[in-house]
Amino acid sequence: MKKLLLISVFLAFTCYFEMNAQNQKHTSNTVLSNISKDRPADFMYLSAPDSTGYRRPLKTPKISDVQRRTNGISELPYPIIFIHGLNSNFETWLEMSEWMDTQFNLSYGGRLDYCLDYDNSLYTANTNIYNSDGDGSDIVRFEYSLNPYGDYFFLNFDIGNDGSYAPIIGSNENVYSNQAAIVKQGVAVRDAIEVILNETGKSKVILFGHSMGGLAAREYLQNSVNWQNDGEHHVAKLITTGSPHGGSNFSFGTLSLLAGVNESSDAVRDLRSSYFWSGQDGVFLKGGLESSSVMWDSLFFSFFNLDVNCDGIISQNIIGLNEKENPTDLDYSCIIGESDIVVSEQDANLFNFIQLNSNLLQNLFYSTAGHLGLTNQTFQNMQGLDEPNEYSLSYEIDLNKNYIGFVSPQPDGGYDSDYDDFKFTITENGIYELKATNTTFNNLNYYILDSEFNILFSDMISEEFNSDYSTQISLNSGQYFIEFESNSPSSLSTYNFSIETTLSNNDNVLENIVSVYPNPTNSITNIDSTEIFNQAEVYNVFGQKIVSKLLDLNQRLDLSELKPGFYNVVLKNNQQIKIIKIIKK
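The chain above was modelled as a monomer; its predicted structure follows.
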């Protein structure tokens, strides 16, 4: 056992130093508003000692993942941040993440650890984030090492005030950080988003919260003061599973005895839908007065403090989370456990407590699992993670990158087809190539649309193209959408795609003047140039390739089969291209 532990420590340190070397090469896009607190490097890769002194190796980013991404392996448009629930930690998501690694070849980005009661004073609260020693901050982000090419990351609150992972309950280091106020969790979500956007260079993230983790995400989203420095939230989608949006009163000794939950904790206080003895509504979720008469829940113990908004002042009237507006410019999904005895179906239904745009459908999914088993329901979790069905919520993609897309069955009352919507920007007129590979089902339709949602080009990737499909399209500068459609899918499947730069008017363009005559033409067009072209591709005004022809030494192009109209003709040889416009009479 000791030999195995030493090997694990050695590998962890090797990974740590190599990852740091990789991160030093990564260019930051934003300036972080807070700094991380130092801790021993092995705290990132080994747990705190258990009762026998053993420290478990923890999941860590792999150097091979960095190399795979730089070698063009498919990635997600936005990184996922998994958030755990009450008295839990990132390992609640391990089974799901290991399955994603195996099934989809995704890259693990790493873990961000926050201690939310760093000052070890449970009777006072603040939302200050650590900047220097002795500043009295409740919230501390400890030193981390992340893979900048990660597809998903963990947000973790099971941290001691020394930066150790999962300290033993009752130890001096355990300050009930994973039972801290949800307001503090929302601040940590804000900070984590900033860190991950900075590390990955992405523009948005996807938040996936289990149980109380869903409320932590909502606390961030529904309080614009928490948003990023540019005033935007930078969240593309929120998925919650088993989250007590309407509260949960599952307690009265059961949690304390079986799960180690301290029922005086701020988290238990905030999760209440109502208080047992006062009968009043839970203040964090439904609003009310920070007072002992309102928040009277037990004859035997009281909450550590009544400062729900963690501003250092009590006896204030609080606006509840479910009284606050939610942003509608992101996608929402909700997963409900039909065997969940901790959170009722009514209270777990996100759409009972937030508003959607009137033209959006509810992405509501059900699992037979109980509360703790929801994070392992890979099928329903992937349904929740499915890309948006609406153009207005499209995920932004870059040119010349390989992406992975998911096809999954839609919820009851949803669309018959699964629509996956993405958007991209062209900065230069030219010819671009759409590639799709590794489709694992019979037919996949796609549509390319302009910024006004007019369809410019469409096609079906049929079974014969499963290994390799490509087509070239002519696009002018501007924003475009690409939508993939799978008709009535009954199982989970994937596809890979990219939009790549091929040739443009400014790349490899002939310095010699090329002319065509006659133009307009009825049929035959002559190409006059000092260069010899061997191929001509003709595109209509919608960017669709109409015909491709080989040219002989006479450089004559027969357009007699084309309908009257305007056409772009791409002339090619082995080294150069020229794009010309021709009018067919």
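The chain has three domains: 2-248+331-385, 391-504, 515-584.
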